[in-house]
């Protein structure tokens, strides 16, 4: 294996270059060049056999997943039909001991006596969930690989390009650059576990289904050491950031007070603890429906059926795609295995295939 690495700064012919864009960010590139011997006939035959076997495994796997997906769809549809038939709709979100362990459908406003607060920034409000998302200005590595055949060798050029971007986690770079490992602040999420729908508390399953996340309105006076711009808090200048700078945004989902308090419709099992939780079966299936706004029982189960059908068709298309790719790979591998030649020679006519060695040299 011959390994060649070029590294020279400020040279148009070097593999390392730096350009500054109009937005004051730098775009760097770094190139590695490797040479390796081209595969022989024996290696190609081994690869063809391996590809054919892998294709067979993929086909059996796709058939199994297709069978499992059909069974899941049928079981889910039956469970939804059973649930719609036995669900009791409540006129108001109040607790009735006679309905314990029964499927209920209820609509109402979210309410809570608690306010969520970020203790480090003193930002929060009457929200169901609150999250702080932190991003760092970092070097981001992008990789592009090209291969060209030169005689009996293959030249592989791997180009690493580097851009400066805001990212929510630390990015690793193989060459030229490194990013800070220490973050002054980290991303966090707070959830109000005391949320209620009228007199009924909601389990964590429903809280995780709450969407969409919306930006928190920030006060005109940002915290000390930060600058506010475009819904973000910047640790330094938002117009000319440097590597290691942080920016933070706050988002919430669901309001628990005021005239714009979030209205929800849920379907689940009423518990003796004055709550609503998901309905579970012995076979691992469950019902925990949630929709924003006031919706009837029929509308909620109709939407659940539509979601089940969409999931089924997506899985079907994925299985069919895997089977198609497997069949194509098996066909190409079989052709190469039968001929014992590179795939570029398999399309030649019998007249052109006078000598396998001649084709191999070509």
Report helical residue fraction.
25-40%
**Structural class computed from helices and strand pairing:** alpha+beta
Taken as a percent bin, the fraction of beta residues is: 25-35%
The Cα radius of gyration reads 30 Å
Order of helices and strands: EEEHEEEEEEEEEHEEEEEEEEEHH
The stretches of 5 or more residues where confidence is low (pLDDT under 50) are 1-14, 340-362
Short description:
The protein has 362 residues and is of the alpha+beta class.
Describe this structure in words.
The protein is built from 4 helices and 21 strands. The protein is of the alpha+beta class and 362 residues long. The strands form 4 sheets. Strands 1, 2, 3, 8, 9, 10, 13, 14, 15 and 16 form a 10-stranded antiparallel sheet that branches. A 5-stranded mixed barrel has the order 5-11-12-18-17. A two-stranded antiparallel sheet has the order 6-7. α1 runs antiparallel to α3.
């Amino acid at each position: 294996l011959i390994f060649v690495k070029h590294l020279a700064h400020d040279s148009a012919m070097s593999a390392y270059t730096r350009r500054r864009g109009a937005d004051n960010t730098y775009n760097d590139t770094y190139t590695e060049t490797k040479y390796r011997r081209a595969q022989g006939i024996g290696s190609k035959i081994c690869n063809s056999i391996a590809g054919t076997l892998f294709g067979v495994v993929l086909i059996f796997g796709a058939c199994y997943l297709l069978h499992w997906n059909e069974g899941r769809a049928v079981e889910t549809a039956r469970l939804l039909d059973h649930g719609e038939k036995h669900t009791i709709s409540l006129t108001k979100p109040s607790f009735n001991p006679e309905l314990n362990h029964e499927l209920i459908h209820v609509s109402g406003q979210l309410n809570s006596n608690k306010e969520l607060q970020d203790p480090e920034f003193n930002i929060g409000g009457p929200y169901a969930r609150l999250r702080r998302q932190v991003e760092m200005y970092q070097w981001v590595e992008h990789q592009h690989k090209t291969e060209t055949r030169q005689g009996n060798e293959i030249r592989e050029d791997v180009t690493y390009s580097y851009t400066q971007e805001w990212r929510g986690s630390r990015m690793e770079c193989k060459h030229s650059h490194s990013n800070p490992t220490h973050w002054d602040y980290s991303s966090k999420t707070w959830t109000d576990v005391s949320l209620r729908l009228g007199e009924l508390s909601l389990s964590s399953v429903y809280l995780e289904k709450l969407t969409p996340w919306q930006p928190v309105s920030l006060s005109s006076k940002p915290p000390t050491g930060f600058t506010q711009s475009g819904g973000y808090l910047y640790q330094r200048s938002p117009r000319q950031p440097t590597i290691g700078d942080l920016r933070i945004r706050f988002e919430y989902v669901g309001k628990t007070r005021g005239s714009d308090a979030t209205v929800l419709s849920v379907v689940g099992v009423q518990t003796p603890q004055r709550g609503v939780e998901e309905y579970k079966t012995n076979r691992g299936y469950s019902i925990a429906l949630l929709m924003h706004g006031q919706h009837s029982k029929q509308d909620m189960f109709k939407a659940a059926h539509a979601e089940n059908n969409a999931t089924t068709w997506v899985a079907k298309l994925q299985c069919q795609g895997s089977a198609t790719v497997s069949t194509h790979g098996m066909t190409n591998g079989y052709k190469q295995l039968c001929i014992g030649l590179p795939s570029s020679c398999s399309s030649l006519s019998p007249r052109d295939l006078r000598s396998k060695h001649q084709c191999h040299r070509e």
